[in-house]
User: Fold this.
Amino acid sequence: MEVSVNALQNPYRTLTVSPLAGALGAQVGGVTLKSLEDEAAWAEIRRAFTEYSVLVFRDQGIEPADQMRIGARFGPPCHYPFVTGMDGFPFIFEVVKEEAEKVNFGGNWHSDTTYLQQPPLATLLYAVDDVLP
Assistant:
């Protein structure tokens, strides 16, 4: 896999970043997001997001309150008008596909909320069942 030119010239110091595919995506390691307070690490996470567009953080054990704090590092939450959020967390909703279901919510290619006048910077997903190898 290719590593971005920026990463070669200016290596990450507080975390590991491993590209997942040629066009986009990287796996980030060496950090626990829910307790991360190191501003240098957050700066490197934002840099990795800029370089790779999609970031994967494995084995994080994130709760809804953690997800809100992590998301706030990238900007204010965005209301999604087609679903109802979780009790106490109106900006978070569960996407559940039961084993017998043949179709899943958002299963076709799409880009969340790009129809808004000011779309959010990103979408934060927390997968309970890992789908990546």
Summary: Strands lie at 16-19, 26-29, 55-56. The CA atoms of residues 36 and 48 lie 16 Å apart. The radius of gyration is 16 Å. The first helix runs from residue 5 to 9.
